[in-house]
Amino acid sequence: MARGRDDIRVECAGVIAGTWFSSIARRGEALIAAGLLMFAGPVDLDEVDRWMRIGWERRREADIPYGQGFSGT
């Protein structure tokens, strides 16, 4: 659907991954989807980080700053 628009693909991957990190019930399918989107073409890692932050904040409604509160489990 992105039709060669790498920015849209990276945005989707970042938001998916960001919401996954902030989710209580973590399911691996979301990270698989994000990873497949990233494998589909060139990736600007700064953009992925930006969109992960946005996804995190949307999910958590900005109550926990991005990069904090992740226990790794």
Topology of this structure?
Layout (H helix, E strand, L loop, with lengths): L5 H17 L5 H12 L5 H16 L13
Helix pairs in contact: 1-2, 1-3
Structural features, described:
This protein is mainly alpha-helical. The chain has one domain (6-60). The chain is 62% helix and 0% strand. It has three helices and no strands. α1 packs antiparallel against α2 (28-39) and α1 (6-22) packs across α3 (45-60). The radius of gyration is 12 Å and the shape is globular.
SS field, number of helical segments? 3
Beta fraction: under 5%
Overall shape: globular
Query: Fraction of residues in helices?
Result: 55-70%
How large, in whole angstroms, is the Cα Rg?
A: 12 Å
Task: Provide mean pLDDT, rounded.
Answer: 76
Number of domains: 1
Straight-line distance between termini: 33 Å
State the order of secondary-structure elements, H for helix, E for strand: HHH
Low-pLDDT windows of residues: none
User: Main sheet, how many strands, which sense, barrel?
Assistant: none
DSSP, total strands: 0
